[in-house]
């Protein structure tokens, strides 16, 4: 019995230590053992990096080739997978923001998206298809980064996948962060007032007063009680964030 009890203690000690070694995906907080979620909505500077990288460095052919590879083999395989300039151009044309939509009386969406003053403000007016492409690109960028570090780093890395959260996962994240006292409620309604860099700290999970969606084929349940009548979001100010599977 004493031996059995000692074995259990050793097992739990090892499990706790192993969990500490696993790297938290960039920009996220832990929901449970396999899910992490962005601390706040995706901001303009993150989406701008996405549009810049797609021009020359990323497309779906490359994404598909990386999905089946183990983390330690991803970086070595890059030289054997040629990029497809035509496909990259096609994706770029889909993801750039070309709307002249007004955010305020004096600011339109393109000015808001490109001006340095708003680089840490939530990206707005993004469709679900664009958001999905962003998640796929982000998956590859983080896995590539970790594949380069894995040989020379004592921390343990696991292959990850970014995607859009389900309604249930978003509700679970809110509940978990509230229980952990990491929930930061923000009441500003306009993206112009939402400087995420000033709001975020190491553990904060920012919950906005506007429900988070994308502008087409919305990710969350349309029949949710939270979306009835005046709670339905304004299409002008629709944000998104990613969830990360490990």
TrEMBL record:
Residues 23-181 form the Sulfatase-modifying factor enzyme-like domain. InterPro entries: CTDL_fold, SUMF_dom, SUMF_sf. This is SUMF1/EgtB/PvdO family nonheme iron enzyme. It comes from Autumnicola edwardsiae.
